[in-house]
Amino acid sequence: MSLSESFFHTSFGALFFVTVLIVLVAIEAGLRCGRWSRARKKSETDSPVGTMVGAMLGLLAFILAFTFQMAAAQYDSRRMTVLKESDAIGTAYLRADFIPEPGRSVIKGLLREYVDVRLEATRKENLEIAIVRSEQILDSLWAQASTLADKNAETPLTALFVSALNEVIDLHSDRLMLATSFRIPEIIWIALLFVMFFSMLAVGYQFGIDGTRSILGTVVIALTFSAVIVLIADLDSPRRGLIKTNQNPLVELQKSLNRGVPGGVPTGHRPIVPAGVSSSSQT
What we know:
By secondary structure, this protein is mostly helical. The protein has one domain (3-261). The protein has helices at residues 3-9, 12-40, 47-95, 103-120, 127-150, 156-180, 186-210, 215-235, 248-258. The chain starts with a helix and ends in a 25-residue tail after the last helix.
């Protein structure tokens, strides 16, 4: 398991605790080195040390900002994908009116179910089943579009539906990639932890050279940096944590599609049935 995957699977509480421990150990080690150096070199001043600490903290701030920007950009991409997917599904649903019956009713029913399954996928326990079912629905939709071509029923109007369906399929792939594959690269985490450790080591060394030590300041530094690391990890984790991608566009789309449909079932009440299992076997 790579370091980035370890960050993704490690609980945020454990990550916070480990980061606090790293910072405290680094400061304590630097403090002891600074005291040892001060005892050996009575005339050493802290001016060069202060310059070194400032440079290290500046580099740490840069890497933290760079990593945070990467995580925030990925979060924004996931948020925009939800909005684009909602628009694409809604467009495909409206353009399904150009499809002759009975294909029109089948396609609209599949699109409504796709939205339901898409929202169920936001629940971690339903993720794998929802992904499989959503791909089955997309395959069925594409089969309906292929049937139109086989029957020479494709017209410029139905071609508009096929174009919208293509966009829905593309956005499905984009959404899966953003949710499962796109993470902050492992080398970025390694560099961040490396620079953080040695920056805190330099801070502790300056404490030792100065002959002063602030326990409260040390704890505040540890808690602050740990909170930022956890925040970055949360932004980089689409399926857990406190920062969730807003699904309101899909929720509103679901309400719109189910409005006026007899027997419309809201999300959270329609069971997801795995392939090969009939709905009657679920009772």
